[in-house]
Amino acid sequence: MLLPWGASEIVANLYVGDLQDAVKFDGMIISVLGDVPACEPRRSIQLPFLVDGRARLDTTAAVIDAALALNLRVLVHCE
User: Fold this and answer.
1) What is the Cα–Cα distance from 66 to 35, expressed in whole angstroms?
2) I need a labelling partner for 5 at 20 to 30 A (CA). Which of 18, 67, 78, 79 fits?
3) The pairing of beta strand 14-17 with beta strand 74-77
4) 42-66, pLDDT tens digit by residue?
5) Which of 45, 41, 42 is nearest to 59 (CA)?
6) In what order do the strands lie in the sheet with 45-46?
């Protein structure tokens, strides 16, 4: 059976997906891309840990933890 493409919920309220998912996501959006694409939603938070390494990864984890503690839906996306 083929499954439709879209964001995947990996734990309650935490999703991983791509830029197409970010455009239609209702919740906090975290982009880990090094460059900001023209169609990136304006409300996205740019945390390119793939470029900046461990320090940025720790910051990203803290932001996600804080958002989940507030019961927010969070999407982390790459391309």
Assistant:
1) 25
2) 67
3) parallel
4) 999 999 877 767 778 888 999 999 9
5) 45
6) 8-11, 14-17, 74-77, 28-31, 45-46
What is the distance between the alpha carbons of residues 55 and 33, in angstroms, rounded to a whole number?
15
Please tell me the pTM assigned to this model: 0.86
Residue 53 has phi, psi (to 5 degrees) of 85, -155
Tokens representing 28 are: 């906090």
- The string of DSSP codes covering 12-61 is TTEEEE-HHHHHH--SEEEE--SS--TTS-TT-EE--HHHH-HHHHHHHH
Neighbours of 21 (CB within 10 A): 17
